[in-house]
Amino acid sequence: MIEVCCAIIVNEAGRVLVTQRSATMSMPLKMEFPGGKIEPGESPEDCLIREIKEELDLTVEIISPGPASPYQYPEFSILLLPFLCRIVAGTILLKEHAAYAWMEPSDLLNCDWAEADIPIVHQYLNPSNNTSLLTNK
Predict the structure, then answer these.
(1) Residues sharing a CB contact under 8 Å with residue 110, sequence separation 6 or more, in sequence order
(2) How many H helices and E strands in the chain?
(3) pLDDT > 70? residue 134
(4) How confident is the model at residue 25 (pLDDT cuts 50, 70, 90)?
(5) Which of 5, 19, 32, 122 has a CA-to-CA distance to 54 between 20 and 30 Å?
(6) pLDDT (average), residues 8-18
């Protein structure tokens, strides 16, 4: 199982950053929360901070972790580790993705998500779910 971290980055207005995978990536043009694979010896938190800097040229602060979410694709399985974050420095510079958008939480379900991200979207949108640490409300 591949361990992957993802960032739910929320701005001061409560909008959430979503990124679109490039046409050359696996799952081309699907929307996702940015992040990436944990490297050997790396903590999930360090991975997330590194990946967001590499992919978006942003420095983020982790606010809280969310529950891990396993997902089985036909060819492989991942364990997606979400973290609620905020930007502390930088301006978005897309280095791998095709596009990004700041979205109202109410619009998140309208995206064409990479399948593993869908449970994370539902966790974020359901603050009454006691297992979710993702809500910042």
Answers:
(1) none
(2) 2, 8
(3) no
(4) confident
(5) 122
(6) 96
Q: Are 81 and 67 in contact (CB under 8 A)?
A: no
Note whether residue 59 is domain-resident: yes
Range(s) of the domain holding residue 19: 2-125
Query: Would 52 be classed as within a structural domain?
Result: yes
Query: How far lies 125's CA from each of 8, 29, 36, 107, 111, in Å?
Result: 11, 23, 22, 10, 14
Model pTM score: 0.90
Q: Which two tokens stand for residue 71?
A: 């997902």
- Picking from 137, 95, 106, 114, the residue whose alpha carbon sits closest to that of residue 33 is 114
Q: What gap in Å lies between CA 33 and CA 121, rounded to an integer?
A: 9
**What's residue 126's pLDDT?**
86
